[in-house]
Amino acid sequence: MVMVGFSYTLGLFELRAQSLEKHIQGIVLDSASNGLSGVNIRLTSTMDTMVTSSSADGMYYFKHVRGNHIRISYSMLGHQIVTKLLSATERSAFVVMPNVVLVPQNALIEGVSVTKTIPVVYSEDTIQYNMDAFKFRANSLLEEALKQLPGIQVLRDGTVYAQGKQVSTVLVDGKKFFGGDVNTATKNLPADFVKKIQVINYFGDYATERGIKSDEPEKVINIVLKEDSKRITFGQLTAGGGTSDRYIGSVGVNRFDDGQEFSVVGSLNNTNTSLFSFGSPSGVGEREKSLFDANDFVDPTDGLNNIKSFGFNYSDNLAENTVLSGSYSFTHKQNVTTGNSFLRSDYLGNKISNEESYRTTNNDYYHRLTAEFKHRFKNNDVLEIKPVFSYNRVYFGNIRERLINNNRITNDGTYQDTASQQNPNLDVNMLYAKSFKKPGRKFVGNVVLNFNSLNKLEHVVDTYTSIDSSMNPPRFTKFDQQYFIEQRSGTDGVKAAMSFVEPFSDYSTLEFFYDYELTDMTAVRRVEDRLKSAEFDQSFYVDSLGVSYNYRFNSSRAGLSYQYVPNKKFRTSIGFAVQPITLNGYLPREDLHYRYDNVNLVPSAGFKWRLDNELDWSVDYVGKNNQPNFLHIIPVRDNSNSQNIVTGNPELKAEFSNRISTTLRKFITSRNQYFESNFAYNKVINKIVADKTAFRNSTIQETTFKNADGYFDVKWYYLFNTPLFDESLQLDLIGNTDFYNNISFVNDERNRTTQFVYSQSAQLRYTWSDYFESLFNTNYMLNNATYTWPYSTEITAHSLLLSGATKGYLSDYVTLGAEMSQRFNSGYESSFMNNNPTILNAYLEISFLPNKLGLLRFQGFDLLDQNKNMGTYSEYIGNDLYEARNNRLGRYFMVTFNMRLQKYPKKK
């Protein structure tokens, strides 16, 4: 009986020990009793396995540890491994481990191996992926490897999103690769060469040197190469052909030599494959990408394209503290887009509808030349100079067959627009940071110069027949208008900023700053009436459409900012600035002057609080001016499009936006989990809005612009990624909610348009084994728009995407893959928007030659031939409903040969 009771008590004790959760923390020190950062710490128990790393102070923390027989091991390259056991009788829920000292390992110990690498390391502004912790197929390019990383999505065209935001720049070992171009780096660098991928919240060189981060950061990826890949020559050669006259050919050669980099790439294809992310902003067939398109296995580019690309990049350390880099890229893109659209504009008593079928051609030549010089002087002063020159030459053609109705008035005709334009642009960014002997004292100056010009020749032909059915019999009227437009415009600007940071205590700094901005615009336009010229046998210019206009925006901002940082876990700042602005406009021909003066009081505030090593919270407020663009202010009535007349308003004021945002981030390193959520509210004073007018018994609409108050938007997003059960199953959740309260004027009546957009995405990646992997994705989007005038109207559209992809390695040399996505659309006004396309792709890859240097790929794209109808677009603004569909690349089959080129340095 005694033994039974003892056994029962012992079993109950073990059961309670198993169910009791513990929180364990401790400190790792080096032999000098200093905190040791980056130590790999692994905890195992009967119920849990957790991994973390020590902080900059040597601290580590495990939460919610279950089970008994707890063992903790401490390892770091170059140090002896230490293992600690937690007493089985320890019943406390909070345990502080004795300090652990790691002693340097002077000799190689046989039989010691690294068993696990921490996959993801989170810090304040950086998320680091240690590539050795992830499984990639040998010879994969970086683009394919990025798709396997939690929190990163890659669209089919190569656009990369990290933690829900688009990546704008790529660095290799801290230096821009091809001027920071994303596609060039991800489509050329082998994943085998990469040691780490660092996703950085980058606030700009000016903010980094000041040490004060107030503006919205951009996402930057820094690729850290392995040590044995810093001196290597590599590249690839690709050639392929297929049905529907599809072809592709590309070559790339790269040389890395301990800081010196040289690369040359070139490509020609008609499969919508671009070497470069940079391109002409005026290019037809391009549209802003969205994370909602991730894992929709369509080709997201509108129209059919023929693309030729070439570029080279050079970077070198001229001296120990001097870096020089430069790049050149050229893209020639020919695009042909056909489509149809529906535009409805609601007025009181009028409902103007415009149905168009169109064909646009675009022949775009784009050159881009970048350079970067950075030098650190012996006294630690820093000088940076970054010029960027681009030149864009475009030939554009547009023909539209359109049918416009308003009550009993119908216009049936054609609108043709052909143009050629040249657009050189130069940006120069210069920064100087002065170092002082007193720690924390800084002086930073930044100057940005911009020179932009545009020369454009345009021929517009507008013809239609107007039918008035209100008369009996109906009245037919012919309209014919032909204009030849010559336009020269230029924009020159300078932005200068100076900051002096002075610490006046161990925890406080005071910043005195001054910002200056000057923008000069000039425009000269002549409009020739070709019909009148033919009639009078001489050039006939329409004086009312001619323009000679000068515009200047001048702003200066002076202020003071206080920052308090009592420790590494808390930072707060508060600032105040005075910003006088002046807008000047001048029409020399009429001798008319327009002037607007205002003084903005601009407060700023924010704090960031790191509640513990894995949780931080930040709140920021910032005020900002937005000046009107040239279209808004040019004081001329432009009726080159007879149905949509636009008149600028030279008396517009600058907008002023007030934005407050808060972000919460949670890292659970032991479980490789990451959560981020952001909420932002933006209110704009003097918002520049459209003022539209239509007349009864007419299909003509006129638009001008005015300032109005009442605009605001609210945006919220979250993202969460976590392994499920084990690291072979990865779940990513992303959600967005946006609400816009837009203001416009229709027939001088104030119109309030609200738009609510909600999207939710879930992605599951499963690596079954070294020979099989799958991906499943679902996206849902709701778009609800309402406007109040001329009558209450509501539009609700839904879109659901289901997709899956799988890849199987039949052997070490054969790979078979398939992708399928199904989209469901409903609620749109136009029938062509409510289609439900199914996309199916498949491919077979065969590797051969020594080290698998050769790859033969057989692929079928869009097997059901439904991608050609996928270029849909919708927009609901003011009293306008606009929906359009463009053609895209359809079904084709292709055979591609790829040869990898690699040369490693000889081992000494």
TrEMBL record:
Residues 435-838 form the Outer membrane protein beta-barrel domain. InterPro entries: CarboxyPept-like_regulatory (IPR008969), OMP_b-brl_3 (IPR041700). It holds the Pfam family OMP_b-brl_3. This is Outer membrane protein beta-barrel domain-containing protein. It comes from Sphingobacterium griseoflavum. The lineage of its organism: Bacteria, Pseudomonadati, Bacteroidota, Sphingobacteriia, Sphingobacteriales.
